[in-house]
Write a sequence for this structure.
């Protein structure tokens, strides 16, 4: 396995894995899966264009030249964010996610972040436990009401 950083110019390389992430969250959410229906890769990635490239980190994990995971993080002042992380299901439990997040936590510290946030669906118990293992803790919970 090889982990390397890529630039926004190469962002299309993660499109297929990002789409698997979208589908995963769509299936996972019993009440709000519909929120993932209209998500579009290019629209989501446009949000990262506003960041100074020195405050944006995109890493990919490859096995035999195929991208099996990615992580995108940003730094905004002293607050960092792991914006999105995904490893294809068949490659989980192999340490890929751990290597990606440790790489990003180290980078966020080096660029001066004092706090790091991540947003996780409350239904995504396995991922919550994964982040807890790095010291993340719950801060707030967003609640929604569907108005039918």
């Amino acid at each position: 396995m090889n982990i390397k950083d890529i630039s926004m110019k190469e962002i299309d390389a993660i499109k297929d894995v990002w789409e698997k992430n979208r589908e995963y969250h769509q299936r996972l959410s019993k009440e709000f899966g519909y929120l993932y229906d209209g998500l579009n890769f290019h629209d989501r990635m446009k949000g990262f264009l506003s960041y100074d490239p020195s405050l944006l980190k995109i890493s990919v994990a490859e096995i035999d030249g195929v991208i099996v995971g990615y992580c995108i993080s940003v730094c905004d002042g002293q607050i960092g964010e792991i914006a999105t992380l995904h490893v294809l299901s068949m490659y989980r439990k192999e340490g890929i996610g751990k290597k990606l997040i440790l790489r990003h936590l180290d980078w966020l510290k080096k660029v001066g972040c004092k706090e790091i946030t991540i947003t996780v669906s409350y239904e995504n118990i396995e991922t919550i436990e994964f982040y807890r293992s790095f010291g993340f803790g719950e801060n707030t919970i967003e609640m929604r009401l569907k108005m039918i």
Observations:
- The radius of gyration is 15 Å.
- Residues 96-110 form the longest helix (15 residues).
